[in-house]
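User: For a reading group we're discussing how well predicted structures match intuition. Take Sporulation membrane protein YtrI C-terminal domain-containing protein. Before you show the prediction, I'll give you the sequence so everyone sees exactly what went in.
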Amino acid sequence: MHIPPYYKRESWQRFLAGTFVGAILAFFVFIYMYGQLYEGWVEKNLELHAELQELKSNYQALEENNKELDQKYNKKITISSIEIHITNQEKLDLDRFIIREFEEKIKNEMSDVIGKEVANFSENHKLLIKIVENKPYKIDDFSYQATVEHLFITEKLSVYLTLSPSS
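Assistant: Thanks. Here is the predicted 3D structure of Sporulation membrane protein YtrI C-terminal domain-containing protein, as structure tokens, for the group to look at:
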């Protein structure tokens, strides 16, 4: 069997040359498209990797912050000092020495509170009020009765009092 010599015909030469040029062009188009897709994939991969690293670092920071907050909340808050504020000292025309002495007497009455947990006294705040209000305070031949206006129980116990002369 004999294969006819088509390569000598001009129409076959054009067909084979067109097929060859088309194959080369198709190969370059394929390489270009593959390069563009691969470049996009690499860029997306790098973005996702950077986002993953950022999320990991945020997670670690939040976890450390959560541990610090847990330690802070597990640590019991205690009362460290007492502040006495007299709201009507100008009205009664009391001097600083009488006010100072009055504050010291109230602090001595409430001295057992220092070092105790805030949670215990916030539940029993009426007891603290009764400690202050049920006793007349005698200073320089005058007797005063204290009335608690406000009581703030935090690390610093703040008591706002109104004084009234008692008989």
